[in-house]
Amino acid sequence: MNSNGPDDPARSGGQELSFRENHGAERLLCAVQELWRARDLQSILQFTARAARELTGADGASFVLRDGELCHYAQEDAISSLWQGRRFPMSSCVSGWVMQHRSPAVIDDIALDPRVPLDVYRPTFVRSMAMVPIHARVPLGALGIYWRSARVIATQELTMLQALADGAALAMENILLREGADRAAARMSELEAATRDLAEQCQALADGQRQNDALNELLAHDLRSPAAGIMLVARSRLRDPDIPEREQHRWSKVLCSAELIQRTAMNLLDTSSRQMGALVPRLEEIDLAALFREMAGILEPHAASREQRIEVRPGAPGGCRVRADGDLLRRVLQNLLDNALRHGPARSAVRVEARRLDARWVEVAVRDEGPGIPVHLRDHIFDRYARLDGRSSCLSAGRGLGLTFCKLAVEAHGGTIEVRDNEGGGSCFCVLLPA
Ligand SMILES: Nc1ncnc2c1ncn2[C@@H]1O[C@H](COP(=O)(O)OP(=O)(O)OP(=O)(O)O)[C@@H](O)[C@H]1O
Ligand SMILES: [Mg+2]
Q: What does the pLDDT look like over 12-37, one tens digit per residue?
């Protein structure tokens, strides 16, 4: 028999194989293109298992996923069921060997290969098999094909299987990347939504703050005149030399309360956000000694209620003079002295003093014997509405506006205000003013 003739069975077999190969290559190409279109992992698993069986004409195929140190038989397509859904340790199954070695396993007869756990295979139809790794940057799994008879597995079948596994690996990576991008996009839109919410909340807060300020201003405006009226009556009653002692005590209290209302109203007005930065001092020559005495006189009833003393030390002989706005400076001192008296203990002394530092600066200090202010809170107490709550020494709750006003007023003069420790305990509020 002419081995090259047209009837040569080997040749005709070769022609048939070559036909199958061409046909198979086309179908492989279609399968890989199909894999690229897959939108999720499950579609990749199903499609790859089916294509592996169809392309090689095997009796079964399985897609195994790596799950840590386990092999998860995630998808199969076979004449009868194999191990779908089961997990085996990497060390005790063929797919584990394939993933660990990153190379194919070709087993013509399972009974003769030590890698095959026969107990697991015996109940199934499998007698021969091939398995290839599915790996992109890391091993993702393995793809296996199975036959019901022992047979020699052709190189072309193995090549086809590996090409399909490579296509599946790329498709899986593609999905992982897309999921990462989707997650990033979702996170980005969450962030955008959160930023929008925050901006709306800020706007609402700012609107609320403006309304609050407008109400505060209205309230402050309406309170000032009646408070001034009450102060006038109380002062004239207290000037009466024949006033009985009990009544004097009562009128002092009335005067203190009316002064507090007026001071709070003025602070509210001057620290409202609409007024911030709008304080313009009307400068005049101020004699600090006279101003200190005046303020001590005004706050005398307040001090007397807890047997406190206000000591006035106007500096060098002849006193200190500054060019400042008398009304603003009066209110700065009133706020500082009010704080000092309120935070100082009963029968303590509050001292107000001035000294010229040099040709340009005069320092005014208000000292008390109270608890002092912790270093880390010294800047904070000048903030609007800032109050150091929960301190036993604090006698009556204020609104946290006094020091904010003081800072605004002093800075409007080009000066500074800060708090230090008073020698011997308590706090010392130091105001530096241009002379
Ligand atoms: N001399 C002081 N000694 C100790 N703590 C002080 C003293 N002065 C101010 N503080 C603390 O600083 C906070 C802010 O003072 P600020 O004068 O601004 O507000 P307030 O006195 O509470 O209220 P307001 O002055 O508006 O009536 C006070 O609540 C108080 O806790
Ligand atoms: Mg105050």
A: 333 344 444 556 778 888 888 888 88
